[in-house]
Specification:
The complex is a heterodimer of chains A (335) and B (225).
Chain A lengths: L1 H28 L8 H26 L4 H34 L7 H19 L15 H31 L9 H35 L8 H10 L3 H40 L2 H30 L7 H13 L5
Chain B lengths: L6 E6 L6 H10 L12 E10 L7 E10 L7 H7 L8 E7 L3 H19 L13 H5 L5 E6 L6 H18 L2 E4 L13 H14 L6 H4 L11
Parallel strand pairs in B: 1-3, 1-4, 4-5, 5-6
Antiparallel strand pairs in B: 2-3
InterPro entries (chain B): P-loop_NTPase (IPR027417)
GO molecular function, one term (chain B): GTP binding
Keywords (chain B): GTP-binding, Nucleotide-binding
């Protein structure tokens, strides 16, 4: 009986998470686009739902909510489903959609996506060879093999992301790194951009008029086609089309310049906004946080170097040590 | 032979609807072979015969400014784009017939471009939502173009076209539906080509008799000669 109650609780929470994932997908990720393949949305929501359920089960395990045997059953079921999705469905669908985009292989989509999936599985398996997990107790096609590989890849990705975040966060927050941008700078750059656009326009006008007169005179500008066409175009070419290629080259260079100027102007506007933001209270708070985190980062690097050089094994991390100190010396009760 | 004044037409729309292909087709009468993302703004020039076939025929250069980006861009990108919206004579709104969101975003695009021009005359914009009265007051001619017509299946074509007809009516503009990879749609003499040249005539001389709005009134002579 209690098993049924527990299962119904789990399933309700799963449906809630599924709905949340669906909404998030629609509102945030695909705000400006239209969803053509609903499969993608379904897979996303299902993965999200099951991941959240696993997290929920861990919390229940700590807080000792629900019956122990039903927890165990749900845990195993969740694990199986997630592994199935992660290893089988998601790579297969990624491969399928990639292959569908390539025109050449459109006819035999399924075949090529299966091939892609098999390649993925091969590399996935190879990844776990150096791990010492193959024991006679478990056999080769067991869950442990899959979990270990998924776990290793996951932890590596998390480490990379947090490393990137740790360095990017102070850089974005701290105002020390902000250049000083005045309105005059922005105006000057905008004027240059508009001047470049004007130059492009005047050159294109000349090209359009040249093309028109050539067309009216009857010389149609033919692209050299075939082998003999190319050889002929080396020696004989109408003066009009020669002019055109010259002007076209100048226009290409100017267009590249206009793109660079546009990107620089956008950058200046963004910097100006950041300066405005850093003057507010929130900005100052983030600035302080930035300094704090950068000092913490430097301390960590220093300690890691010392550990490697002196071959020490790290015992506890600073957060745990900090909590130890507060509990023991300051007498604050922690559960 | 060509007018010294500038005639500037903006081409606006979401990313990937086909603005660059359209501009290439309009200006060079050829299909664009390798479309890629537009960073910033790319300009092209179309030679247009104003009042073709009449003794008052005159050749104008129409500049088509193809501004890239999406409505949801960061405000720094929006401020940078705003520099292109100065002194505009006409706006072409491009949307993708296979993507409903792109036609919904056209309201926001038109507001972004028009607000830039309305600000100097002191008209306040309240909350950025679509307001029909703003468009009734608008002097800048609009044209709505739907692309990728070939990718709509025959059976769905009717409902898509009715939807776009409503859209064009909201903007008080003409509409053209075509496929940018096929020059046949804009062949000389087709109804699309006629609509296009009528639009460009309206852009060159504002106040060109528009039977919808002015009831077939007289041509306002705001000449630029």
């Amino acid at each position: 009986m209690s098993f049924l109650i527990d299962s119904s609780i789990m399933i309700t929470s799963q449906i809630l998470f599924f709905g949340f994932g669906w909404l998030f997908f629609m509102r945030q990720l695909f705000k400006d686009y239209e969803v053509r393949q609903y499969v993608v949305q379904v897979i996303f929501s299902v993965t999200f739902a099951f991941s959240c359920t696993m997290f929920e089960l861990i919390i229940f395990e700590i807080l000792k909510v629900l019956n122990s045997s039903s927890r165990y059953f749900h845990w195993k079921m969740n694990l199986c489903v997630i592994l199935l999705i992660l290893v089988f469905m998601v790579p297969f669908y990624i491969g399928y959609f990639i292959v569908s985009n390539i025109r050449l292989l459109h006819k035999q989509r399924l075949l090529f996506s299966c091939l892609l999936w098999l390649t993925f599985m091969y590399f996935f398996w190879k990844l776990g060879d150096p791990f010492p997990i193959l024991s006679p107790k478990h056999g080769i096609l067991s869950i442990e093999q899959l979990i270990s590989r998924v776990g290793v890849i996951g932890v590596t990705l998390m480490a990379l992301l947090s490393g990137f975040g740790a360095v990017n966060c102070p850089y974005t927050y701290m105002s020390y790194f902000l250049r000083n941008v005045t309105d005059a700078d922005i105006l000057a750059l905008e004027r240059r951009l508009l001047q470049t656009m004007d130059m492009i326009i005047s050159k294109k006008k000349r090209m359009a008029m040249t093309r028109r007169t050539m067309f009216q005179k009857g010389e149609v500008h033919n692209k050299p086609s075939g082998f003999w066409g190319m050889i002929k175009s080396v020696t004989t070419s109408a003066p009009g089309s020669e002019n055109l290629t010259l002007i076209q080259q100048e226009v290409d260079a100017l267009e590249e310049l206009s793109r660079q100027l546009f990107l620089e102007t956008a950058d200046l506007y963004a910097t100006k906004e950041r300066i405005e933001y850093s003057k507010t209270f929130k900005g100052k708070y983030f600035n302080f946080l930035g300094y704090f985190f950068s000092i913490y980062c430097v301390w960590k690097i220093f300690m890691a170097t010392i550990n490697i050089v002196f071959d020490r094994v790290g015992k506890t991390d600073p957060v745990t040590r900090g909590i130890e100190i507060t509990v023991n010396y300051l007498g604050i009760q922690f559960d | 032979m060509a007018s010294l004044d500038r005639v500037k037409v903006l081409v606006l729309g979401d990313s990937g609807v086909g603005k660059s292909s359209l501009v290439h087709l309009l200006c060079q009468n050829q299909v664009l072979g390798n479309p890629s993302w537009t960073v910033g703004c790319s300009v092209d020039v179309r030679v247009h015969d104003y009042k073709e076939g009449t003794p008052e025929e005159k050749t104008y250069y129409i500049e088509l400014w193809d501004v890239g980006g999406s409505v949801g861009s960061a405000s720094s990108v929006k401020s940078t784009r705003a520099v292109f919206y100065n002194s505009v004579n006409g706006i072409i709104l491009v949307h993708d017939l296979t993507n409903k969101k792109s036609s919904q975003n056209l309201y926001r695009w038109s507001l972004e471009a028009l607000n830039r021009d309305l600000v100097p005359s002191g008209v306040l914009v309240t909350n950025g939502d679509y307001d029909r009265e703003q468009f009734a007051d608008n002097q800048i001619p609009l044209l709505v173009i739907g692309t990728k017509l070939d990718q709509i299946h025959e059976t769905k074509r009717h409902e898509v076209l009715t939807r776009t007809a409503f859209l064009a009516e909201d903007f008080n503009a003409e509409e053209i539906n075509l496929d940018c990879t096929n020059p046949r749609y804009l062949a000389a003499g087709s109804s699309n080509a006629v609509k296009l040249s009528r639009f460009f005539d309206k852009v060159i001389i504002p106040g060109f008799p528009d039977r919808k709005r002015f009831g077939g009134g007289t041509l306002k002579s705001l000449h630029y000669d």
